[in-house]
Amino acid sequence: MIPQDKLDALVAKFDRIESEMSTASATEDIIRLSKEHGELKEVVEKARELSSVRKQLKELKELSEGDDAEMAALAADELAELKKREPELEHGLQIMLLPKDKADNSSVILEVRAGTGGDEAAIFAGDLFRMYQRYASLNGWKVEVMSASEAEMGGYKEIQASVAGDGVFARLKFESGVHRVQRVPETETQGRVHTSAATVAVLPEPEEVDIEINESDLRIDVFRASGPGGQSVNTTDSAVRITHIPTGVVVSQQDEKSQHKNRAKAMKVLRARLYEAERARADAERAAARKGMVGSGDRSERIRTYNYPQSRVTDHRINLTLYKLNEVVAGDALDELIDALISQDRADRLAEMQGEEA
Predict the structure, then answer these.
(1) For residue range 272-313, what is the model confidence (pLDDT) as tens digits?
(2) Does residue 145 lie in a domain region?
């Protein structure tokens, strides 16, 4: 049960922010207060509704115990309805009060790599990337391929892209891990079902202020690019490799003809990887309390199987199976998996928070 003084404190904070907004003149203060106001508005509306229900419950309880039999009967009926409503409001508010992942609103770097399975794994990696492309399109997000290594039989050995938009990380963060496919490959002559895999990594793109990179910590090498890319690709030192000396993280980019553009892309990826490493370190400190967390993001963890003969998709973290593989791969039904993962994560975090309070 959420204490009433906690509800009152939330409302008081919201009222104070509204008061400060009406008098603020500095741009940075207006932006900060507007952000806080937006984050609290729905929470406070729910808190006020819960407070109102609790007040009514108290009044109706008094009436139901009064001497007026007719009034007591009416009050008892209303009391029964409101007693059902109170826990619903409490649960909804508890979900809204869960700590927010500050990266949820971030755009992301999406990396898909072929795993075990040879040519079929590369083809599957291509299928996964196109699934995310279509899903991004449905959500109005912008996808920009940053680098790609195409496989001879189709698909990708690996592909890296920026996915930009509001709340991208919140929707895609549970996609990190090993995706497994079971189907008859195009290259199979005897009709046997093969199992192949591809890995997906979803890295939130940090703001400049989120992570500081000192130039003195970088070793930047330039070299001639290899592979297709135009006349100048093999004749100029346009490719860039950046090594972050303290961590040993190495990022290379060579898709652009311009060394400057390759460096900018490499820095973008480096920033995302360092940010993810810092997030992983912080998460590890809390991991003991949340061993069953849905979104561990462990890239070695098999998270989902796509079984084509049975048109079945199974997410192993939440034991959810959908018999609509084509719709999932088309991006249309991917929300059903993502929504279930988000709900499970919220339930796990709510149970953890209640355990800590107990």
Answers:
(1) 888 888 777 766 654 443 344 344 434 456 899 999 999 999
(2) yes
- For residues 258 and 317, membership in a common domain is answered with no
Same domain, residue pair 316 and 232: no
CA angle 344, 106, 46 (to 5 degrees): 55
Q: Supply 178's token pair.
A: 């090993």
Verdict on whether the full-model pTM lies above 0.90: no
pLDDT tens by residue, 206-243 = 765 567 788 888 898 888 777 554 444 455 678 888 89
Distance, CA of 223 to CA of 234 (rounded, Å): 9
**Owning domain of residue 223:** 215-283
Q: Give 211's DSSP letter.
A: S
Sequential DSSP letters for 272-306 = HHHHHHHHHHHHHHHGGGGTT-TT---TTSEEEEE
Distance between CA atoms of residues 243 and 215, nearest Å: 11
